[in-house]
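Q: I have 149 residues here and want to know how they pack in 3D. Can you give me a structure?
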Amino acid sequence: MRLNELTPAEGSKKKSKRVGRGPGSGHGKTACKGHKGQKSRSGGGKGPGFEGGQMPLIRRVPKRGFRNLFKKEYAIVNLKDLERLSDIDLIDPDILMNEGLIKGYKDGVKILGEGNIERAITCRAHKFSKTAQEKILSAGGRIELIGGR
Protein backbone atom coordinates (compact mmCIF):
# COMPACT_ATOMS: atom_id res chain seq x y z
CA MET A 1 0.00 0.00 0.00
CA ARG A 2 1.25 3.47 -0.93
CA LEU A 3 0.26 6.93 0.29
CA ASN A 4 -1.52 7.71 -2.98
CA GLU A 5 -3.63 4.56 -2.59
CA LEU A 6 -5.06 5.52 0.82
CA THR A 7 -8.77 6.29 0.84
CA PRO A 8 -11.27 6.88 3.64
CA ALA A 9 -13.35 3.92 4.78
CA GLU A 10 -16.67 3.29 3.04
CA GLY A 11 -19.34 5.61 4.40
CA SER A 12 -17.02 7.50 6.72
CA LYS A 13 -17.20 10.78 4.80
CA LYS A 14 -20.61 12.44 4.81
CA LYS A 15 -21.35 15.07 2.19
CA SER A 16 -21.87 18.55 3.62
CA LYS A 17 -25.32 20.13 3.39
CA ARG A 18 -25.40 22.58 0.44
CA VAL A 19 -27.74 25.33 1.58
CA GLY A 20 -29.12 28.31 -0.31
CA ARG A 21 -28.90 26.66 -3.75
CA GLY A 22 -32.48 27.01 -4.94
CA PRO A 23 -35.82 25.38 -4.17
CA GLY A 24 -34.99 22.10 -5.93
CA SER A 25 -32.29 21.30 -3.39
CA GLY A 26 -34.71 21.26 -0.48
CA HIS A 27 -32.43 23.71 1.38
CA GLY A 28 -33.18 26.86 -0.63
CA LYS A 29 -34.81 30.20 0.22
CA THR A 30 -34.05 30.61 3.93
CA ALA A 31 -31.12 28.16 3.79
CA CYS A 32 -32.37 26.11 6.76
CA LYS A 33 -32.33 29.16 9.05
CA GLY A 34 -36.07 29.75 9.38
CA HIS A 35 -37.69 33.19 9.09
CA LYS A 36 -36.20 36.32 10.66
CA GLY A 37 -34.77 36.26 14.15
CA GLN A 38 -31.30 36.61 15.61
CA LYS A 39 -29.85 33.34 14.34
CA SER A 40 -31.07 33.88 10.78
CA ARG A 41 -28.89 36.97 10.35
CA SER A 42 -25.28 36.97 9.29
CA GLY A 43 -23.10 37.25 12.37
CA GLY A 44 -26.15 36.43 14.44
CA GLY A 45 -26.03 34.49 17.67
CA LYS A 46 -24.58 35.16 21.07
CA GLY A 47 -20.85 35.59 21.51
CA PRO A 48 -18.57 33.55 23.72
CA GLY A 49 -18.97 34.46 27.36
CA PHE A 50 -22.63 35.46 26.99
CA GLU A 51 -24.50 34.27 30.07
CA GLY A 52 -28.14 34.90 29.14
CA GLY A 53 -28.07 38.56 30.18
CA GLN A 54 -26.43 37.89 33.54
CA MET A 55 -23.27 39.97 34.03
CA PRO A 56 -20.52 37.86 32.41
CA LEU A 57 -17.78 36.41 34.59
CA ILE A 58 -15.07 38.40 32.83
CA ARG A 59 -16.84 41.62 33.84
CA ARG A 60 -17.65 40.45 37.39
CA VAL A 61 -14.05 39.69 38.31
CA PRO A 62 -12.12 42.81 39.40
CA LYS A 63 -9.25 44.09 37.32
CA ARG A 64 -5.91 43.68 39.04
CA GLY A 65 -2.32 44.71 38.50
CA PHE A 66 -0.41 46.36 35.71
CA ARG A 67 1.96 44.95 33.10
CA ASN A 68 4.69 47.29 31.97
CA LEU A 69 5.28 46.68 28.26
CA PHE A 70 8.65 48.45 28.37
CA LYS A 71 10.16 46.60 31.35
CA LYS A 72 13.68 45.31 30.75
CA GLU A 73 14.48 41.72 31.77
CA TYR A 74 18.12 41.15 32.59
CA ALA A 75 19.84 37.82 33.15
CA ILE A 76 21.44 38.17 36.59
CA VAL A 77 24.92 36.94 37.54
CA ASN A 78 26.58 37.46 40.93
CA LEU A 79 30.28 38.00 41.57
CA LYS A 80 30.47 34.74 43.51
CA ASP A 81 29.51 32.95 40.27
CA LEU A 82 32.22 34.81 38.33
CA GLU A 83 34.81 33.79 40.94
CA ARG A 84 34.15 30.14 40.02
CA LEU A 85 35.40 30.83 36.46
CA SER A 86 39.00 30.85 37.64
CA ASP A 87 40.71 30.22 34.29
CA ILE A 88 38.84 32.91 32.28
CA ASP A 89 39.99 36.55 32.38
CA LEU A 90 37.63 38.11 29.82
CA ILE A 91 34.00 37.48 30.77
CA ASP A 92 31.15 38.37 28.43
CA PRO A 93 27.54 37.14 27.93
CA ASP A 94 28.55 34.44 25.41
CA ILE A 95 31.08 32.93 27.84
CA LEU A 96 28.48 33.02 30.63
CA MET A 97 26.09 31.08 28.39
CA ASN A 98 28.75 28.53 27.43
CA GLU A 99 29.63 28.00 31.09
CA GLY A 100 25.95 27.51 31.99
CA LEU A 101 25.65 30.52 34.34
CA ILE A 102 22.81 31.98 32.27
CA LYS A 103 20.37 30.31 29.90
CA GLY A 104 19.83 33.34 27.68
CA TYR A 105 19.40 37.08 27.89
CA LYS A 106 16.51 39.07 26.50
CA ASP A 107 17.49 42.63 27.31
CA GLY A 108 21.01 41.99 28.56
CA VAL A 109 23.13 40.71 31.43
CA LYS A 110 23.43 42.44 34.80
CA ILE A 111 26.29 41.75 37.19
CA LEU A 112 25.36 42.02 40.89
CA GLY A 113 27.76 42.38 43.82
CA GLU A 114 26.93 39.35 45.99
CA GLY A 115 30.17 37.60 46.92
CA ASN A 116 33.77 38.73 46.39
CA ILE A 117 36.23 38.60 43.55
CA GLU A 118 39.93 38.23 44.34
CA ARG A 119 41.52 38.44 40.88
CA ALA A 120 41.62 41.05 38.13
CA ILE A 121 39.10 40.30 35.40
CA THR A 122 37.70 42.21 32.44
CA CYS A 123 33.95 41.96 32.57
CA ARG A 124 31.64 42.95 29.70
CA ALA A 125 27.93 43.26 30.51
CA HIS A 126 24.93 45.47 29.82
CA LYS A 127 24.59 46.64 33.43
CA PHE A 128 26.50 46.55 36.71
CA SER A 129 25.32 47.23 40.25
CA LYS A 130 27.36 49.82 42.16
CA THR A 131 28.77 47.23 44.59
CA ALA A 132 29.77 44.89 41.75
CA GLN A 133 31.44 47.77 39.95
CA GLU A 134 33.39 48.78 43.09
CA LYS A 135 34.49 45.21 43.88
CA ILE A 136 35.70 44.47 40.32
CA LEU A 137 37.64 47.75 40.13
CA SER A 138 39.16 47.34 43.62
CA ALA A 139 40.42 43.87 42.62
CA GLY A 140 42.30 45.50 39.72
CA GLY A 141 39.80 44.50 37.02
CA ARG A 142 38.02 46.45 34.29
CA ILE A 143 34.36 46.78 33.39
CA GLU A 144 33.00 47.40 29.91
CA LEU A 145 29.40 48.36 29.26
CA ILE A 146 27.78 46.73 26.23
CA GLY A 147 25.35 49.05 24.48
CA GLY A 148 22.68 48.54 21.89
CA ARG A 149 20.30 46.31 23.88
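Q: Anything worth noting?
A: The mean pLDDT is 92. The chain has four helices and six strands.
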